Amino acid sequence: xxxxxxxxxxxxxxxxxxxxxxxxxxxxxxxxxxxxxxxxxxxxxxxxxxxxxxxxxxxxxxxxxxxxxxxxxxxxxxxxxxxxxxxxxxxxxxxxxxxxxxxxxxxxxxxxxxxxxxxxxxxxxxxxxxxxxxxxxxxxxxxxxxxxxxxxxxxxxxxxxxxxxxxxxxxxxxxxxxxxxxxxxxxxxxxxxxxxxxxxxxxxxxxxxxxxxxxxxxxxxxxxxxxxxxxxxxxxxxxxxxxxxxxxxxxxxxxxxxxxxxxxxxxxxxxxxxxxxxxxxxxxxxxxxxxxxxxxxxxxxxxxxxxxxxxxxxxxxxxxxxxxxxxxxxxxxxxxxxxxxxxxxxxxxxxxxxxxxxxxxxxxxxxxxxxxxxxxxxxxxxxxxxxxxxxxxxxxxxxxxxxxxxxxxxxxxxxxxxxxxxxxxxxxxxxxxxxxxxxxxxxxxxxxxxxxxxxxxxxxxxxxxxxxxxxxxxxxxxxxxxxxxxxxxxxxxxxxxxxxxxxxxxxxxxxxxxxxxxxxxxxxxxxxxxxxxxxxxxxxxxxxxxxxxxxxxxxxxxxxxxxxxxxxxxxxxxxxxxxxxxxxxxxxxxxxxxxxxxxxxxxxxxxxxxxxxxxxxxxxxxxxxxxxxxxxxxxxxxxxxxxxxxxxxxxxxxxxxxxxxxxxxxxxxxxxxxxxxxxxxxxxxxxxxxxxxxxxxxxxxxxxxxxxxxxxxxxxxxxxxxxxxxxxxxxxxxxxxxxxxxxxxxxxxxxxxxxxxxxxx
Length: 761
Fold this sequence. Notes:
The chain is elongated. It contains 20 helices and 29 strands. Among the domains are: 459-529; 531-760, PPM-type phosphatase domain (Phosphatase 2c, domain 1, 4-Layer Sandwich), CATH 3.60.40.10. It is of the alpha+beta class. A ten-stranded antiparallel beta sheet has the order 1-4-5-9-8-12-11-10-16-15. The chain has a five-stranded antiparallel beta sheet with strand order 14-13-19-18-17, sandwiched between helices. Strands 20-29-28-25-26 form a five-stranded antiparallel beta sheet. The longest helix has 65 residues, at 2-66. This is SpoIIE family protein phosphatase. Keywords: Coiled coil, Hydrolase. One of its GO terms (molecular function) is phosphatase activity. InterPro entries: Bact_Sigma-Reg, HAMP_dom, PPM-type-like_dom_sf, PPM-type_phosphatase-like_dom.
């Protein structure tokens, strides 16, 4: 009973550990996938809006670069009825704000409400109720935007409005859709009409852009001009919005012709994040790099202990910082500084442990504290730990209840069994004692050579059966003793016949071994014959290539090939699971499929690999095999190596000695596991300069063991390649194989070994 009780208790502990381990794997995988999907959705929303403003800005930049060539077009367009701007001057006056204070208003010009876009010219751009000539000219040069901006407002990413601001000296505003901009600004932003538009609303934006002009290479050296103004509450009732800016440069790129802005409403994004469901009470949040939480549901605000306040700096900025949280461990959370998924275990919130999962989003250029700097926002998930482990706690309770019930039942059954056993032993022992004494005496007489002894059977129970067996054994011994010589002769004849049959079978087995050996040798020769010969590799002018393959058995499962066709060099390397004849045949299937597709002028890398997978999968199903293989295919042309498919790492050593390890895990799936792997395929491009070295290998290299089972490893392979990268590909290959064989020593080679070295001349 004690042993059983301890066994059940041990089972309970082991079951708990197994369930907890499984839950840890499951919840991490689930949260990671959910977080990555959500972050991709958020990034996509931002990139959509950024793409819109880049298109509009690119159009305006092209117009600005044409300079005087566009003057006639500007003059014609600005005079057409649809594009002509009819301005009305609103005289200056004093009005009371919501607090009853007198504030300046009016003093600006604005066009009619019937026009496609509103144009507002502020007080410092007018004289005696009319727009100054230089401002009027700048406005007329932007008249063509009445065709473009309304369309971008209606289509593309959801946006509140799109507008153009004139050059820093004349910052008129052209905005679509039409709104009574001057009146709204008078009501919400007193004093705006007397201060430059850029400085009043977006202080530091123009000076930051101007510093780009002074950088080495000027603005042409930059690839990204998009600048994001942090989220703020739209005073016009648009909710929480974020402004994305893009400058338009002068033709010589030494000045600013103006800027485009998009007010992107964050309501859709915030609603999406608020609606993320995690367990029962988990939630998601979106925070800026400084910890300002811009999106979270109401319950999340309470749980995180956030304090909401507004900072008015022309625009009402939303401030809700993690560092100001009433929860100490939330306030101490450090946001991630890289793109990986980060887990914060046992974060105490409201006295309960929670799991917090964080991931950085795409980098933005953000205007903060008057300067433009790169910034990464962070998406976070928060889930109570007790909700994740709810099934574990239920399982523990169920196991404990079962354990108590089993122990109680066993105690009752054991006590009753002991009583019955004691009574049975007493009754049976008296009956069986007499027969056992007779059996003992009979055994003694048999040991003395009296094989005619027999014991009388008195019962049909086990003792009676034992007595009968004793009598049969005595009779058989007596018979064998009397006929021993005849039995020996008979057995000798049988052994001679069996020996002749064994010799015949051995001869047949030897012939079969010779035949199988010959067939395996043919298969091995065939496998080696389809490898690219040295002469073909030497004919490739731009590349110096050397390869090596050594099967672990007579026939191996590794594959590599170098082919020419369709204007590219097709390079492949793969590893079939296991080794031997079946793996070797599958390797030959792959080589044939690749060469056939190349000959049929298939040029799309991902479709190429998808067809190879389909052919191999169907052949595997036909022969009822469980094999599959990792396979990477590369197309080389004009100094670029395009890589598709999942295999081991690709090691690249630059001519400078810098070493790169390219992970191919995300470029596909093992070939032959599924009929269609197209959706999992991806490709990447590696640029090669003269002297750069690329090394491909199979796991037979890195997993090769010496006598103490220590593996060769990727790090040692990288060291050997780096030491010899200035040599020819043949010398690099020889150095790798020599070092590998030195590592293996006298130990057995358990897997096929393949190395392919490619060096650009």
